[in-house]
Amino acid sequence: MLRCSSASPDNLMGRVIAVANQKGGVGKTTTAINLAASFAAAEVNTLLVDCDPQSNATSGLGFPKDPDRISSYHLLMGDATAEEALLTTELEQLWLIPAHKNLIGANIELVNAEGREYRMRNALATLRDRFQFIVLDCPPALDLLTLNGLVAADAVLIPMQGEYFALEGISELLDTIERIRAVLNPELSIEGVVLTMFDERTNLAQQVMTELKNYFGDKLCRTTIPRNIRLAEAPSHGKAALVYDPRSKGAESYIRLAKEIIERQAPAVDSQPSGQSFATEDHKEEAVEVAEEMDKSA
Fold first, then answer.
1. Quick one: pLDDT at residue 285?
2. 163 Cβ neighbours under 8 A, 6+ residues apart
3. Sign (positive/negative) of CA torsion 148, 39, 130, 62?
4. 283 pLDDT higher than 60
5. The whole model's pTM is what?
6. Rounded to the nearest 5 degrees, what angle is found at the Cα of 295, between the Cα atoms of 289 and 298?
7. Is 191 helix (H, G, I), strand (E, B) or coil?
C-alpha cells in the first residue's frame, strides 16, 4: 500500500470536492482520478464519483463499460442508492461510483423534476460520514450534471492548462459558482486552481501563472502538474498514476497536491458546515433560472 504523509481521518470528515472546468482538455479527469487515489494513499477513505457521460474516470480505474451496472445516472434518477453503486478499486481506501453514457439523458429527463439541482447532493448525504473525501468528476460543460456536482460540493477544484486560451472562459465558470452560491449552495467555495500540463521552462506558462496568482492569490495551488508520459499512459491501463508508476513525476505531483489540500483543511475543520442547504421559497424562481441557463449552454 502506497502512503503519503499521515492524516487523521477524524479531522477530515465528508468533504466533497467537485473537479470542474467547462473547457475540455485541461486534465480534469486525470486530476479527479489521481487526486482521489492520492487521498486514499494518505490513508483516508475516499470516494470518486464519475459524473461525466464519457465515463473516463470509470474506465481510467479499470472498469469496462457496463450498461447493467448501477451508476451515477441511477442516483440522479432516484433508482438506486449511493451505497448500492459503490465499487471497490485496486487501492484499499478508494471507492468508485461509476458513470455511463446514459447520463446524457439525465439533462432532459430531469428538466421538470422536483428538486433536480439537489439530486446528487441528496444521494451522497448518507455517505458523507463514511468518506473523508468525496471527489466529483464533472463533465466539461456547464449543464445540469455539473450543476448537480456544484450543488453537492463543499468546494470546487479548477484544473487549468498553463496556456493563454485556458484563461478564456474562466470568468464564466466563476460567475456560475457565484450564482450557485447565492441561490443553491451558500457554502460552496473554491478549493483552488491547479495548473496542469505545466511546462515551467516556457515564458507563456510563467506569464499565465503570474496572472492566475494575481487574480486568485493563495487559491492558486503551490503544486503544479507537469506534462508526463507515464501520467498519460496510466488510464489506458486502467490504473491511477501512483499505481502504474509511483515514481513518475506525474504521480509525485498529485501526491503533493493531495497533501497540500489536506494541510489546508486541517486548521479549518471545526468551521466546516454539515448537513444540507436548500434554496428558500424566495430563491426557488432564481434557482430555476440558473438551471435553465446552464441547460441552454450545454
1. 52
2. 204, 205, 208
3. positive
4. no
5. 0.86
6. 145
7. strand
The reported pLDDT for the residue numbered 75 is 96
In angstroms, the CA 251 to CA 268 distance is 27
Relative to beta strand 94-97, strand 46-50 is parallel
SS3 category, 226: strand
Residue with cell 457565484: 178
> pLDDT per residue over 136-153, tens digit each?
999 998 899 999 999 999
The predicted model gives 109-136 an average pLDDT of: 94
Q: Is the pLDDT of residue 24 over 90?
A: no
How far apart CA 110 and CA 283 sit, in angstroms, is 19
Sheet order of strands, 46-50 included? 87-88, 94-97, 46-50, 133-137, 15-19, 155-161, 189-196
Element (H, E) at 170: helix 170-183
Grid coordinates representing 201 are 521552462
Rounded to an integer, the average pLDDT of 200-208 is: 81
Taking every pair of C-alpha atoms in the chain, what is the biggest distance, in angstroms? 53
C-alpha distances (whole Å) from 148 to each of 35, 175, 248, 277 are 20, 16, 34, 13
Query: At residue 161, what are phi and psi to the nearest 5 degrees?
Result: -80, 145
Task: Give the confidence band of 295 by pLDDT, cuts at 50, 70, 90.
Answer: low
